[in-house]
Amino acid sequence: MGLAGRRPALVNAFDRALADRLAALEAQGLRRELRCVDAAPGPRVVWQGRTYLNFAANDYLGLATHPALRDAAWRATEQFGTGSGASRLICGSLAPHHELEDALAAFKGTAAALSFSSGYATAVGTICALLGKGDVIILDKLVHACIVDAARLSGATIRVFKHNDLNRLEALLRWAASPDHATLVATESVFSMDGDQAPLREIVALKERFGAWLLVDEAHATGLYGPHRAGLADELGLGPRIEVQMGTLGKALGAAGGYIAGSRPLVDWLVNRARSFIFSTAPVPAQAAAARAAVELVQTSAGAALAGQLWARVAQARTALRLPALAAPQLTAILPLMVGEETRALTLAAKLRERGCFVPAIRYPTVARGQARLRVTLSAAHTTEDVAALAAALDAVHFQP
Ligand SMILES: *Cc1c(COP(=O)(O)O)cnc(C)c1O
């Protein structure tokens, strides 16, 4: 008798129940599966023996395979080993973590910074440390799932405003304003699935008028905008007016992890109260060292050149895909090609793969139902020929943005 035959009936029933749920997802075009990629992340991916042009990664500057980051990771591994050994507050607070945080604070122009094992852990730890029952959190409708989950877990009262709608935000701020509780507004600076930007100047002015706090998630802007490539707040000179500047280390910065940059009291409070920081093993030394190398690299002229190359590819793609032209600080590396129906997005993505282009079909629950899209992301590592090949493949599958 095989192993399966000896499984208790209850376990079999459990698996049947899950199989039924998966079949329901499949029927709606919503089932997801992992694809094992057989090559380093980069402008090309190898999958099941075939090479594709990769328009799916968030490695916007090509830093995930950059020699400076690799060297930093090697050296940290040689010196500190592969694991941090414990959480930061027990004995895992190694030199690479402190060096990363010093570099992040200098980069963002803040008094202090704190790193986390992921962007997800950053949002959950930070928001739950700042807010509790009786407080209010006001979210842009399109903020990342980690901010939504954090808001729910915090116990604060949640209000949501239509994406980038300043009138709705103002009405909610007026409703929430009270000296008796905290009010936190949370937005992204560049939105992960729509690739547009928040009106940060206006949001900062509004939260100041109503005495609220602001958290800006720069996951898709860190490394890309501003005189130091520190993000959109850097570009707009707004950093000092934002209480909580959040970002990730795994996108343009080519490593992994998340960070908060802000005042000393903010960081000290998070060290004491952010549960995802306190009750979690410190990130591996290689991760922190690679991220620090990236933070330093993006601020140099080499970083400026990589960003310039990215914006040139984005401008080329916008023209080739007949999208409205935008000037440099308004450009983002994320081009959502709206499809609508989930199964149609899957079919288009499969046809693009047949033509050698890997573009993900983004579906519910990442975006709303019926708003499935092909999410094209560009990198400084793409060539002009790569972008032309994507445009040709989209034409060949008769996709009209
Ligand atoms: C990717 C992302 C995160 C999560 O960061 P991870 O390091 O991948 O956990 C948070 N916010 C936004 C807007 C993101 O796009």
Could you please describe the fold and organization of this structure?
This protein is of the alpha/beta class and 401 residues long. It has 15 helices and 13 strands. The strands form three sheets. A seven-stranded mixed sheet has the order 3-9-8-7-6-4-5, with helices on both faces. Helix 4 runs parallel beside helix 12 (285-298). It binds pyridoxal-5'-phosphate.
Give a quick set of tags describing it.
401 residues, alpha/beta, three-stranded mixed β-sheet, 15 helices, 44% helix, 15% strand, globular, binds pyridoxal-5'-phosphate
Shape: globular
Q: Number of helical runs?
A: 15
Kindly state the number of beta strands.
13
Mean pLDDT: 95
Please provide a brief summary of the model.
The protein has 401 residues and is an alpha/beta fold. The protein is built from 15 helices and 13 strands.
Per-chain topology:
Elements: H1 9-27, E1 44-47, E2 50-54, H2 67-80, H3 88-92, H4 95-108, E3 112-116, H5 119-130, E4 136-140, H6 145-154, E5 157-161, H7 166-176, E6 183-188, H8 200-210, E7 213-217, H9 232-236, E8 244-248, E9 258-262, H10 264-273, H11 275-278, H12 285-298, H13 301-320, E10 334-340, H14 342-354, E11 357-358, E12 361-362, E13 372-377, H15 384-396
Parallel strand pairs: 2-11, 4-5, 4-6, 6-7, 7-8
Antiparallel strand pairs: 1-2, 3-9, 8-9, 10-13, 12-13
Helix pairs in contact: 2-12, 4-12, 5-6, 7-8, 13-15
Pyridoxal-5'-phosphate (PLP) is lined by residues 118-120, 144, 146, 188, 192, 217, 219-220, 248, 250, 258.
